[in-house]
Amino acid sequence: MKKTVTIILALGFITTYANSQSVDELKKQFEDCFNKEDYACAEKTIEKLIKKEKDTKALAYYYSNLGTAQRRQDKNVEALKSYTKAIENNIRLTYAYTNRATLYQNLGRFPEALKDYESALLIDPVDETALLSRAVLYRATGKLELAQKDLELLLKNDPKNYQARANLANIKKRLGKVEEALNDVIQLIEEQPKEAILYNNKADYLMTLKRYDEALKEVEISISLDPKYLMAHVTRGEILLELGKTEEANKEFEIALSLGFSKSDLDEVISSHKK
């Protein structure tokens, strides 16, 4: 319900397609702008590169990067057009499909997102972004078995993949395999002891098992590692509700709201704990 992976946006920086000094300077400027999160500057710079370029493969990379610069400015319509141009210039550029798919997914256009993930996986059947992000989409639409299948396929190819393992634990919890999910997250914490989300997930699983005191200790570790991690405050509020500490719970929920948690989502969380 609450834990998701962070969707990865792929960026391809061209290093071989052009060798004039002005193009090299523009490429360096684009990277500098992007790294400084000045996406308007990045957009203008990549547009100049596109005007200079004739090679279709190079254009595909440029258009994909243009789409991501536009996306970071919430120019979603323009970003979709740029990703489409990237695909038109190179139909085998996997991350152009996954970039467009994740944007479709964020916009709630799930059928189009699924089609792009399928296109990416036809090119690379174990593409990490496609499998992880499609699993998130499947989970959001209640297709938990399909989400599990994608994550297990990724783990077969990359057994140590942290995001796949963490997400698979959440899928197991949703499927009612809470003890198994708990064991998985305990193992992950041993390997990644500074990850706030893992302690929050562990607290969530313990709460589901009604082990509230243990859950409270775990979520407090999560908050200590990242005081601005809003889901940990939501989880702590939920646990406090279950312990009958309504006033303390409401304080946690207020913190979550101040950090960006939506009121409608919070109302849904609270209603799920009403007896």
Write a structural description.
The chain is an all-alpha fold and 275 residues long. The chain has helices at residues 21-35, 39-52, 56-71, 76-89, 94-106, 110-123, 128-140, 144-157, 162-174, 178-191, 196-208, 212-225, 230-242, 246-258, 263-271. The protein contains 15 helices and no strands. Helix 7 (128-140) packs parallel to helix 9 and helix 8 (144-157) runs antiparallel to helix 9 (162-174). Residues 1-8 and 14-21 have low confidence and may be disordered.
CATH superfamily of the largest domain: Tetratricopeptide repeat domain
Query: Please, how many domains?
Result: 2
Between the first and last Cα atoms, what is the distance in angstroms?
A: 20 Å
Q: Structural class, from helix and strand content?
A: mainly alpha
What count of helical segments does DSSP give? 15
Task: Indicate the radius of gyration in whole angstroms.
Answer: 21 Å
Task: Say how many strands there are.
Answer: 0
Mean pLDDT: 92
The fraction of residues in strands falls at under 5%
Identify the quaternary structure here: single chain
Low-confidence stretches: 1-8, 14-21
Largest sheet descriptor? none
User: What level of helicity do the residues show?
Assistant: over 70%
* CATH architectural designation of the largest domain: Alpha Horseshoe
CATH top level of the largest domain? Mainly Alpha
Write the layout of secondary structure elements.
Blueprint: H1 21-35, H2 39-52, H3 56-71, H4 76-89, H5 94-106, H6 110-123, H7 128-140, H8 144-157, H9 162-174, H10 178-191, H11 196-208, H12 212-225, H13 230-242, H14 246-258, H15 263-271
Helix pairs in contact: 1-2, 2-3, 3-4, 3-5, 4-5, 5-6, 5-7, 6-7, 7-8, 7-9, 8-9, 9-10, 10-11, 11-12, 11-13, 12-13, 13-14
